[in-house]
Each structure stands twice: as C-alpha cells, then as structure tokens.
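Task: encode each sequence below as structure tokens.

Item 1
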Amino acid sequence: MLTRRAALMGAAGIAALPVLARAAKAEEIMDTSMAAPADLSSLKRIKRKLVRPPMVHDHEQEAPGEPRIVEFEMQIVEKEIEVDDGVYLQAMTFNGSVPGPMMVVHEGDYVELTLYNSPENMLQHNIDFHSATGALGGGSLTLVNPGEKTTLRFKATRPGTFVYHCAPGGPMIPWHVVSGMSGCIMVLPRGGLTDHKGDPVRYDRVFYIGENDFYIPKDENGEYKRFEDVGESYPDTLEVMNGLVPSHVVFNGKVGSLTGDNALHAAQGEKVLFVHSQANRDTRPHLIGGHGDLVWERGKFNNAPERDLETWFIAGGSAGAALYEFLQPGVYAYVNHNLIEAVNLGATAHVVVEGDWNNDLMEQVQAPVEYDAAYEGRTALP
C-alpha cells in the first residue's frame, strides 16, 4: 500500500520541480513498522570512512571473528561535473564522486548506511543495493527528500561484487543512473578470496573502475549544451537517452580521469584486484599487455574464477572482479574493448608499473630500421 509519506513526497517533488511533474513517480514505500525487531545487540560495531574511487577504504581481506555491523555514511550531492574539456553534465552523485565510493564488508556482516539528501538538492533520491534482499534492494525504504536523512541496515548474505544505484521510481530510474548515481559494494568471503582450486588468494591493492555512459545533448550548432541545474537538463537529456547512443563512455566520471597525471600506479610483482562496475550497459574490460589471472566475470565469489582471460564481460547492472600479477614494468592500458568507446568516447585507464624489464617475457630483437624492399620481405607473402 502506498503510504501517506510517499504521497507527500511525490507532491513535494512536483511542487519543487514542475518540469518533472509528468515524469516523477515514486515507487511504493514499504511499511515495515510491524515487523519483529532484530536483536543485534551482541554484535560489534565498526565505522568505515568511504574514500573517493578508484581507491577503496581500509579493510581486512579475511574477516576477524564474528560478523559485525559495519557503519557507513554517504551524502547525495547534485552538482555539475566536467566530463571532457568544455563538456559539462548536471550530475547526481553519491558522496560527490562518479561513481559512488566502493564499500567492503564480509559475508554475514550487516551493512548500516546513513544516507543524507543534501538540502541544496532538487530531487528525491534513494539507494538500491543489488547485494541486499527485499524492498527493491532497500530502494523502497530509503526514499528521501532534500534535507532528509535515512538509515538502512541489511545483512550481506552473498559474497561477491555488486552494483548499487539510485532508483526513485519510473522514468527517474534510468535518468539518475546515467547521471552518475551508481557505485559498488564488495562482499568478501569470511575466509577471503580463493582460486579455482580453493586455495587462498590475496591481493596487494584494489582499484575500483566505475564505468558510466553519459547522454549529453547538443544544440543546433552541434555544441554540447550546458544547463543551469539538474531540472533544466532533464527534457533534452531524456531525448538523447531514448536514442540509446551515449555521447561519452568513461571510467570514473570523466575522459582522462585515470590517465596521465591521474594514472593508477603499481609495482612489478604486485597482485592487483580490479573491480569494475557498469550499472546500465554491457562492457568488456581488457588489460592491454596483461591478462585476467583469475576473473570472477559475474563478480560472485561462491563461483570458481575463470583463468587467463584476455577480455572479460560485465553485464549491464553488475560488477565483476579480476586479479592480475604485474610481471613487466611500463604503462598498461585498461580499456573497454569496444575500442570505439575506449578511444573515441573515453573508456580508458592507464596503470604505470615500476620495475625491471624481463627480456625472457618480451624482447625487442631489432629496433626499427629501413629495409631494401626489392630483396627483403617478399618471403612473408603467401
């Protein structure tokens, strides 16, 4: 049954933002007040401070002791971001970043999130955890107006990597998602990761790659439009969205966000866990010059990982994980191997690896020189 609060929230949204009056439709808000309370008084509580992607907050790879209640805080921020040089998006974000920050807990832990909708915002927001059970992943228990906060707790029952995103109802869902409102949670097995044989696996560092497809409108002159606020951007953005052709496909919110001075860094011999999420479209991560030693393509750690993959597949609305030990120094390109999207639309990251070159793995036997085409090279042809 639709509660009185849901009706009031819908009315408030329409009053605050007339342009969205025809589109806004909050989903049913669950009334769970009659359910028996869960007694978790014996469990230890810990607080985790979320950090900006591609980094991930401190965490243990193996769970220490009994399940815990892991507390997080996250603020919803509507703001303009620069997607490319001179190209701007009226974004909706979790904690001010695109993607939202990655959370890490262990199977059996309880996630307790306090979600703040900043009073400066214009829109209703909520959060749907693909890792949670019931109530639209928490979406129908977390719908908040600007200036409101809510706290949701759920038990992490399934290990793996999972998407979370905003899902306020109806046509607002895809708009909020492609405006930046998605992130990832990793639920580690209590004993940590294991390989295809069931043996323990550890990583030296985690990089979180959040891939986003953006749909930024152009004017009659072919120039990208810039809008005063998120509400003004909706009608034109909706038209581009419904064409299903993104203007940009990027990692971590911007073309070049993980290249050049912003490149990721690792050392030769380090094992890096790449966690990759895409809340809306399918994607095909590939590490140029490397491989997926162990790949949880669908991101679920109860399943044995694939081995030695060149390219792996992340279905839209999911997150996957790949572990690679860097064997050579140099610059590696981590891309969406739809190369049009990688090179022309922005889905590229770089990993700079320090170390000593190993000629046994690869050697330039001869540097490029000119040759006599009249006599050389003809034997190469069939």
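Item 2
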Amino acid sequence: MQTDLVAALDIGGTKIAGALVSGDGTILVRAQRPTPARENGETVMRAVEEVLAELTSSPLWPRAYALGIGSAGPVDASRGTVSPVNVPGWRDYPLVDRVRAAAGNLPVELIGDGVAITAAEHWQGAARGHDNALCMVVSTGVGGGLVLGGRLHTGPTGNAGHIGHISVDLDGDPCPCGARGCVERIASGPNIARRALENGWVPGPDGDTSAAAVAAAARTGDPVARASFDRAAQALAAGIAATATLVEIDIAVIGGGVGKAGEILFTPLRRYLADYATLSFVRPLTVAPARMGTDAGLVGAAAAALAGVAAAGV
C-alpha cells in the first residue's frame, strides 16, 4: 500500500482544522469544525473526532502514515497532554492518546501552535533557507518557536521559543501568566487596543475597538494609536533581541493578526531593534512578515509528523 501522506490537526480556541498533506506540503483534503471552547473537555474532543472522521472517510486516508498536531498551549509533548489557556475544559488532557485511538493508531507528534507555525515558515515561508530563526505569532496572545542549526527546536515539552512570556518591563503590569511586564502583556492585539483606549483613543463610528482598528487609525496619523503600536514594537524588539543574544538567530518572522498591521508595526520595530540588538553577532538580525497565512498551523503540524517519522527511522 502506498504511504506518502501525513495527517495534520490545527487546534485553537476558535477552530479545529484537519488536513491530509503531501510530502511537499500540499494540502489535499481539508476538514474543519468550530471549537466549542466553553464546553467540557469531551465535547471539545468530539469536535476533534468529527474532523478526524471526515479525514478518515477520504479515499486518500489509507496513504497517511503519521499524524501531527499543532495545539494551543501550553502543551506537554513528553506526556502527550495539552492545557490550552483558551480551552478551559482541557487541563492535562491526554490528547495524543485520544487522537491516536481515533486515527487507527498512527504515530502522532504533538507540538504547540507557535512551534507549528515556525515549522511551516521554515519549510515553505519567510524563514526558508535560514538555519537559525525565531518565528512569532502576534495575535490575541504572543507565541513563537525556534529553528536552531537547521532543525526545529521544540524543547522537552514542546514549548521552546515561547517569547510572549519573556519579561521586558521589570516593573510592568501583571501578566495572566503570573509574571510582570511580559511581551504578550504589551504587544498582543487586545493589549495594544487596551492601551490606546486608556490613553484617549476614540474608535470610529462603527465602535470597533480591535487592534486592527487601532492600526487603521495609526495609518491616518492618530498619535495615540501610533504610540500604542510604537510601545508594542519596542516590547517585541526587546524580546527578539534577547532571544537573538541567547541563541544567535539571524531572522525573526512575525505573523498573526498584529503582524498584518504592516509598516505601522515593522517600521518602529526595526528602529527599536537597532537599539537593542547591539552586539556584533546580533546586529545582522532581520525581521520579516510571515508568508504562510491561515494554513501555517496545518502545514507546520504536517512538518512535525514528517520529522517525527524521520527521527524514528520509520
């Protein structure tokens, strides 16, 4: 029997997506369900099983020889469990065992969603050709992952590269994680919007108070909106420079909804990066927008499945 495909799951607080993916990263079959994030754990799992049932009913399913999961986190790849902040019904939930049972006992690889997007960007996106990279998702939260020495570096539990919870303001606001002054507390979309509102930004007639609306106002020259993005860019630059100093990355790729703000974010980010990345071995560091879009989680989960099989020598 021909076995040349992998299955992939991208599990977040809004949607559960699944796919069958070829060895070159082409998505051949898709399935998707909304995430019942406020329901109990078994209800969420049923949505995952519905996605898997749709995939397993495809004529291509017999060609799948492994399955990768990119999940909102924290994840614990060593135990096969997940505890997504935005899915309260899953705490230390045995996702790998449950998925393996629903997928006919295929080998399963679990990584965090930030790591999945990193795998996708390194395989086919903005970090392609870079052996040492940080890839970030700047959206409702701030996550990330690392490529070191040309390989995805997940760490023992699958959370390495979680830049959102590096503290860049020692006396800053408390973060829900328990620390203070985290990158996420300053640079995530909701916090960009919160800061703009607190400092007097007035939304438009539609009442939109999202970070995208703040970005739109910044493009028209609104000084408060620009200042909120400037502060986010400074926090991101400090976190990126600290990461580069620690592990010698040469590119930082930024995706997610905030990344779509374009030069409203990237112009001050590059300016601040020059202030923070000052040592000779980090000065060449560049930043770039992500390229993989909404399929990044699925493509990255597929990459993890392929890498896991290769490492196991299957």
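Check on item 2: Residues 198 and 258 are 19 Å apart (CA to CA). The first strand starts at residue 5 and ends at 11.
End of task.
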